[in-house]
Design a protein that fits this description.
By secondary structure, this protein is mostly helical. The protein has nine helices and no strands.
Length: about 150
Amino acid sequence: MKLNSKQKELCKNIDYSFQNLYLLEQALIHSSLKSRGLNNNQRMEFFGDRILGFVISDHLFKNYPNWREGELALNFNSLVCKETCSEIAEDIRLGQSLIMGKSESKHGGRLKKTILADALEALISAVYLDSNFNRVEKLILKLWDSQLKN
């Protein structure tokens, strides 16, 4: 498998080169592409959501020792919500790399916030599966850098 120009740009935008290109492809396949059956990004999205949640909660817990549980929860929720994830997905131009059904694509699927957020979580999972926890943690903290500063 070879990367197309949009996938190459995505890898450049996240500063990561996949060893296993199949993982990247699977992270980019939206469920609207029925011809791929179960081979879409939904399982990876599930896993990536948990990885993201752990990295962000770990960061907040370690960097804000004076915050009570309520402050941690409020900030955590705003950092991992669909809105924040979709903004980051837009920043890295993830939508243009998605592999989806023609109908979904025609109806603005590459710009839909839920699809972008889910694909970002799947991408996080793909990076983790392709490398290790330290690498995906670095990626998440880099992508979320401006949100974490706010």
